[in-house]
Amino acid sequence: MGCILEWTIIKPLKNGLVILLYLIDKKYRSKMRRQFIYFLLFVPACLFAQNKMTNQKMQDPIQINPKSINQLLALDASHSLGLKEFNPESTLNAKRFWLTDLVNGNKMEWAVFNPQKASYWVSVLLNAKTGTVLKIKAGDDSVMVNVKEDHWQKTTTETLLLLPAGKTIISLELVNTLSPIDIKSAELVNAARKQEIEKRVAAFKGDCTWMKEAGYGIMVQGGGWAYPPHGDKKPWPGFAEDFNAQKFVEKVDEMGGSYIVWSATWIDYLFPAPIRTIGDILPNRISKRDLIADLIRECKKRNIRFMLYYHLGHGSKEVLLAKGWKDSPEQDYTSRQKWLKTEEAILAEIGNRYGTGLDGVFLDDGCVWYPADFEKLGKAVKSGNPQRVIAYNPWIAPSLTPFQDFYCGEGFDGSATPFQLDNGVIMGGPQKGLQLFGCFVFDGPDWGIYKPNTIIDTPKNWPVDRIVDLTHKLEQQHYTIAFNLLMYEDGSFGGQSFDLLKQAAMKLKRGKWKKIRRGN
Length: 520
Prior knowledge:
- The strands form 5 sheets. An 8-stranded parallel beta sheet has the order 20-19-18-17-16-25-24-21.
- By secondary structure, the protein is an alpha/beta fold.
- Strand 10 and strand 11 form a beta hairpin.
- It contains 14 helices and 25 strands.
């Protein structure tokens, strides 16, 4: 068999690879060469794929605003192929969380446009362990992020990043970690404007004094989705038109609740009041009666504070599209800004309508709101009452903005307090600077009743004395907890839930029982 020895030297590739060819049978030389050429073409393609990045989403380039907090969402970045998104399925992909399971070498990039050369503080919202190191680069400058604690956190660089003027790339690369990490975003604050922003934050804050003195409140997720103990629910807006506000508030007073958290919307976007900005786009989702105004009126008679829980309706495609959302799981920047503008108008009308009668607003699903101009959005929420306290629910993520007042505390029942507090304010960790608030399911099986024939559970491990002891703790440490009770369509509660809180209120001389004591 005739053979030749053929040496083919290929120039080193970027990773230093050198390929040599070898002994080839003359008879199969042509075939072998073809196979070899295919192989050569294949290798660089694989290597190229390893370095390929996804395309940037939303605004491209992101316009940097020196006067505000610039939020660069990891999910919108151009990033290494193969990175996973923690994004549980939701309508039109409205819920957006973070990139997950990043390992050494993974990176992301944002194309930005900076109006003028300036130095920026960079903070990263991430879930990592102590010792994790990230490198952030822009132009010829770079800074390091050294993680010094475990779990979710907002970690700020110790040195400033010089951001050149014009269009540039900000890159973030994971340099060292012993275990995979999650990244939600990077935030940039102009160093020269930092004190100015902090002053605006301080001026923005509402009055949390009543929360520090409240002890506990009552939260209900009741609305047009609620069912009676048996049978079908009323067609909307039957709930809003027929609900007995006086009887409900009297029951809260008997249970000693010093405030109410009322769900204006929740499992469905059905607002129990004639809000014009909602009616203009979703006329069948409001009511003629202003149930919220009636509830506030009854609360004022009994010196009970009133808060609204607001769910933006992302569970309904109809609601999202009416508010300006794009009919696609890939929302674009223009449609997102249209949606935010619609929400601002709705929240401003609500705020102005109820004025000082509305003490607080709990905005759920921060994962949908973020990123946003939270200063502008917050001013809309505080319309009619600048002392109103507001919060965006971050779930397990760090605080999403300093332009809010309290921590939503979903699931926190006050039993074990893993927070360093000063007069009820969280002094460290991912929720630093916020008034501590918590809310949890007292009975269940869920936060509200939205299925027929639901049986309300008996509260577990909540004897009267435990409620009494918790209340004393709340009063001493100046934070508050809302007991979330299931409520039927007619405003009735689970008998044992109501009795436990009523007995505790009687022992504590709260609510109605405080008034009776004064009367005697």
